[in-house]
Design brief:
Blueprint (H helix, E strand, L loop, with lengths): L1 H8 L27 H13 L2 E5 L6 H12 L5 E5 L9 H6 L3 H7 L6 E6 L6 H12 L3 E8 L9 H7 L4 E3 L5 H12 L7 H10 L4 H17 L7 H8 L13 H42 L1
Parallel strand pairs: 1-4, 1-5, 2-3, 3-4
Length: 299
C-alpha cells in the first residue's frame, strides 16, 4: 500500500522529470519571471541606490519568485537577507537576522553588518513596531535597501516613516499575465511535452482564474491523470472527467471581493499542504535508505 502511494506521488518520474514540474514552491527550477520584466528592471536599479520598495499582488501571482530572482542577482555580494513573514513558527526580529549574517560569533558579540539588502515576503503580517525597527537599522546604515511584498499595500501595518520612504515610485503592482505568458510559464517547466497543447494550457489558465499557482495545481492533476490512465495527449473531454465541471471554478474578474479573498486563502492552504507532502516524501526516502543500510550492515 505504501509503495502504491509512493508511485502515485512520484508520477512525474514516469514522464522523465526529476522533480514535479508543477510544484508550487517558488522557483524550483530557476528564477525566471514571466510578465513582470518592468518591475525587475526597476528594482535592479533601485536596490543598489538604497531604497525601500513594495510589491503588491494576490497570493500565487509570482511575488516570491521575483524576490528569489533578486537573491540570485545580488547574493554574490553576500549582502542579502530573505524572510517570509507568514511563518507561523517565527516572528520577524530584524536585529537577530542582521546579527545572524555573522553566525554564532555575530550573535555572541552583537556584530552588525553594513548595507544589507532585506527582502521581506508577505509583509502584511508585520506590525508597525516591527517595521519601525527596520527603519532604525536603515538609518544606521546596517540596511541599504528593503523590498516588501504583500497582498494589499493599503492594508499593511507599515510604519508611516516606511510608507514615506516607499512613496509612489516604490510601489509596484503585479500585472495579470496574458495567455502567451501563461503558456511560456508552463513550457518553461514541461518543455515540448504533448500531454497538453497550447490551447489546453489557455483553457486551464482561464479555469484557474488567471492565477499562476492555481494553474500549476490544475496541471498537476491533469498530468497525474494522464499517467494513471496511460494517456499521451489529453483533450477537452478529459478535463470534464478530471474536474467534473462545466465552467471555471476559480474567481473571475467580476466576482465579489469576498469570493476572491476566499479563493486566495484556499490557494495558500493548498501550498502549505503540498509543502508538508513533499517533506513527508523526503522523510520516506531517507527512512528507506536507512533501512537498506541497516540490512547491509547485518549481513
Amino acid at each position: 500500500m505504501e509503495m502504491e502511494e509512493e508511485q502515485q506521488t512520484m508520477w512525474w518520474r514516469k514522464l522523465g522529470f526529476y522533480t514535479n514540474p508543477f510544484t508550487i514552491k517558488p522557483a524550483p527550477f530557476d528564477n525566471k519571471v514571466f510578465g513582470q520584466d518592468n518591475i525587475l528592471e526597476d528594482l535592479y536599479y533601485k536596490i543598489p541606490a538604497g531604497t525601500m520598495s513594495f510589491i503588491e499582488g494576490n497570493l500565487g501571482t509570482g511575488k516570491t519568485t521575483i524576490l528569489k530572482n533578486l537573491i540570485s542577482k545580488f547574493r554574490g555580494q553576500g549582502k542579502v537577507i530573505y524572510f517570509s513573514c507568514n511563518r507561523i513558527d517565527t516572528e520577524l526580529n530584524i536585529e537577530e537576522l542582521l546579527k545572524g549574517k555573522y553566525g554564532f560569533w555575530g550573535r555572541l558579540f552583537g556584530m552588525m553588518p553594513k548595507e544589507m539588502i532585506v527582502l521581506l515576503d508577505e509583509s502584511q503580517q508585520l506590525s508597525s513596531v516591527n517595521t519601525e525597527r527596520i527603519k532604525y537599522f536603515f538609518d544606521q546604515g546596517n540596511i541599504k535597501s528593503v523590498v516588501f511584498t504583500g497582498t494589499n499595500y493599503s492594508n499593511t501595518n507599515l510604519h508611516e516613516s516606511i510608507k514615506e520612504r516607499i512613496g509612489q515610485d516604490g510601489l509596484f503592482r503585479i500585472k495579470e499575465l496574458g495567455e502567451d505568458k501563461a503558456i511560456a510559464l508552463v513550457r518553461n517547466r514541461i518543455g515540448n511535452s504533448t500531454v497538453v497543447n497550447d490551447d489546453m494550457i489557455k483553457k486551464l489558465w482561464h479555469m484557474s482564474g488567471k492565477n499562476p499557482r492555481r494553474l500549476l495545481q490544475r496541471l498537476d492533476r491533469v498530468f497525474r491523470y494522464a499517467v494513471e490512465n496511460m494517456e499521451t495527449e489529453l483533450k477537452e473531454d478529459h478535463l470534464k472527467k478530471i474536474f467534473d465541471e462545466t465552467k471555471p471554478a476559480a474567481a473571475s474578474a467580476h466576482e465579489p471581493a469576498q469570493q476572491k479573498e476566499k479563493d486566495m486563502e484556499e490557494v495558500n492552504s493548498e501550498r502549505n499542504m503540498e509543502e508538508k507532502k513533499e517533506v513527508s516524501e523526503e522523510k520516506k526516502q531517507l527512512m528507506k535508505k536507512s533501512s537498506k543500510k541497516k540490512k547491509k550492515s547485518k549481513k
